Amino acid sequence: MNMRHIEAFRAVMIxxxxxxxxxxxxxTQPGVSRxxxxxxxxxxxxxxxxKGRRLVPTSEAEALYREVEHLxxxxxxxxxxxxxxxxxxxxxxxxxxxxxxxxWLIPAVLAKFLEARPQVRIFVQTLPSTQIAELVATRQFxxxxxxxxxxxSGVSVRNLPPSPIVAVLPFEHRLAAREKVSLxxxxxxxxxxxxxxxYLRYQIDDAFNRQSIVPDVVAETPxxxxxxxxxxxxxxxxxxxxxAPSPHGDTRTVxxxxxxxxxxxxxxxxxxxxxxxxxxxxxxxLLSAQMDAMAPGH
Length: 298
What we know:
Blueprint: H1 3-15, H2 18-25, H3 29-43, E1 48-51, E2 54-57, H4 59-86, E3 90-97, H5 99-102, H6 105-115, E4 119-126, H7 129-137, E5 143-147, E6 155-159, E7 163-170, E8 190-194, H8 199-210, E9 216-221, H9 224-232, E10 237-241, E11 253-257, E12 263-264, E13 266-271, H10 278-293
Parallel strand pairs: 3-4, 3-5, 8-9, 8-10
Antiparallel strand pairs: 1-2, 5-13, 6-13, 7-10, 7-11, 7-12
Helix pairs in contact: 1-2, 1-3, 1-4, 2-3, 6-10
C-alpha cells in the first residue's frame, strides 16, 4: 500500500461513491476505480459492495478505515504545528542568561513571551557571561543575555538598553529615607560589592577613586542576587544593576538611585552567521522593550 491507495480508499469511505471520491481528490472517476481495484487485489479481499450508485464498505473496510483515520489525525496535527511554526506559535528556544537578570526580569519577559506562544518550549539556564558566550558560539544555545564588555569570536552582539547602578539598603537603614544616595554618603558604610573581576566593580572602584573615597568592602560576590541577599540579612549596603533586585521582592531591602551616573551594559548574543531565528529575535525585542518601559524616568 502507498499513500495514493490510502487517499483513494479514504475518499470513497467519506463520500460513499467513486464520483464523490473523484471530486474530493480532483482526479478522474476511472482513476479512482483503478486505484481501489488495485488496492483490493494487493490486500486479497474486497473493500466495497455496489448497491446502485453507492459503494457499501465491507467489515474489513470499516476496520481498515479506523486505522487510516488515526494516520490522518496525525497528519492534521503536523499541519497545525507547521502553521504554528509559521506564525511563531510553536518551536523551541534555548536561552542562557547571567544570574543578575534571571532573578526576575528574564522570568517576567519569558512569561509574556510564552503567553502569546502556547506551543513554544523554552530551555533556560543561568551561567556567567563568559560561559554563555562560549556556549552560544558553539550553538548549544540560541540566545544568550550577558554583561558587556564581552570579547568572544563566533557571536554577534546586540546591545540592550543600559541599566543604572543602584544602592540596595536594609529597609531600616538611615539612608533608606533619602530619594537618592551618593557615593559620598557611602563613605564609612559597610559595603557588599560585585567581585573585582567584573566590569561593574571596575566602574564602582573608579568612581570611588575619583572622589578619593576608600570603600569599606566587607563582602564580594560575582552574583548580584547574592549581593541583595546579603543586604537583606544586614551585612551592609550593596551596589548592583537596577535589574538585580526584584521590584516586588524582599521587603527587608529598598533600592535607591545614585547621584552619580554609573551603568551596566547588557547585550544579547547570537551565534555568528546563524540563520535568523524568529523566536530569538522576538524574545530579544520583548526584553529590550521591557527594559525600556521600566527604566528610571519612564
